[in-house]
């Protein structure tokens, strides 16, 4: 985690099964890491693939993320959130770093084309598991306004900064800031997330 | 930028949509704004759920490469004494924890809900009854996954794939999480067994979806048993195992 903010309530939340696995991983338990892999590898690969698009590169980055989970497991701080969120934050950041460094130069020409190629959030054609989760995400995404949804999709699934997102959508910076926040808050409530 | 401006950046920050300088400014603000930190935590949990919604099945070779890689990677030590960070005992049940666990359980159980349509709202309506039973099973899995005495044992399945047996003696519940089980012909099925002093008691049939990955609760509890075994049986299952187990998970040790 990049940020280590002080919490109002310093008590750590009760660990769930994933957190317990992660604690074992932090002690070098490879069997626990195998179990953890079984649970998180699919979402890590799916998210990285969403952002990077390129299958080979996505697999490479997903592998790096999973090895990083092993390497830094002892740095997981349950006061900052659950283990799944910790892993996904790491995966998203790594994918975003990759896509931003690669696109920095080539971006300008592609900008116009990009918006047209922006995928729907349900576009993945290959074998997918976790159908219930997908269904719920689809339903909740459907509850957002179009601008909220487009902003969240561009920022999260495409790894765009909010400046780029504003640019692509042709709206003011402040508008995107608030749409990202409002959209996520609405998703949080719809998905029943409470941290 | 004013504090109010900064506060509206929680969403962009949680989605890694700020550039380096802005992210730094926001982090400094967040260190002194407990409300912002809390909101970022919640929005990050939310973003993680979006990731679960686009999960893919990783190729088996990826697992092999990752496992081979970690064997040679040295782990970082904790930044703070572990005991301060992760109290494994004397845990309290937080509401937030449960919703996270619901997510974890959903992603496991959803795999088992084989016939669930990916695509259609209408189909979702028709499958409401089915969804309800999935929900109940999910709720049971959540309880199991969040029990203080939950243990997990992973073992390979002969013929391919591997599985984890999750047990809580306190709840007297067990679940079977499996990955990459080889597909069986229609005439055969995987069957789970509890080992009770050497006699085998059926714990249910594995309704493995395509891809051979999923999760299910075992019928009956693990209390008083010595382990879980898996055999391949004729479709419909057997009263007792008809062959050698393809996987055996003893509870002791």
Shape of chain A: globular
Strand content of chain A: under 5%
Shape of chain B: elongated
- Assigned CATH class of the largest domain in chain A: Mainly Alpha
Considering DSSP H and I runs of 4 or more, what fraction of the residues of chain B is helical? 25-40%
**Termini distance of chain B?**
58 Å
Report a brief summary of the structure:
By secondary structure, chain A is mostly helical. Chain A has helices at 17-26, 30-52, 55-72, 83-117, 131-141, 146-157, 162-169, 173-191. Helices cover 39% and strands 21% of the residues of chain B.
List the helices and strands and how they pair.
The complex is a heterodimer of chains A (195) and B (253).
Chain A: H1 17-26, H2 30-52, H3 55-72, H4 83-117, H5 131-141, H6 146-157, H7 162-169, H8 173-191
Helix pairs in contact in A: 1-2, 2-3, 2-4, 3-4, 5-8, 6-7, 6-8, 7-8
Chain B: H1 3-7, H2 10-14, H3 20-30, H4 34-52, H5 60-70, H6 82-85, H7 95-112, H8 121-126, H9 128-146, E1 151-156, E2 162-168, E3 173-179, E4 188-196, E5 199-206, E6 214-217, E7 227-234, E8 247-250
Antiparallel strand pairs in B: 1-2, 2-3, 3-6, 4-5, 4-7, 7-8
Please provide a written account of the structure.
- The complex is a heterodimer of chains A (195) and B (253).
- Chain A has 195 residues and is an all-alpha fold.
- Chain A folds into two domains: 91 residues, RNA polymerase sigma factor, region 2, helix turn helix motif (Rna Polymerase Sigma Factor, Chain: A), CATH 1.10.1740.10; 82 residues, Arc Repressor Mutant, subunit A (Orthogonal Bundle), CATH 1.10.10.10.
- Helices cover 70% and strands 0% of the residues of chain A.
- In chain A, helix 3 runs antiparallel to helix 4 and helix 5 crosses helix 8.
- In chain B, strands 1-2-3-6 form a four-stranded antiparallel β-sheet.
- The longest helix of chain B is centred in the first third of the chain and has 19 residues.
- Chains A and B meet through helix 1, helix 2, helix 3, helix 4 and helix 5 of A and helix 2, helix 3, helix 4, helix 5 and helix 7 of B.
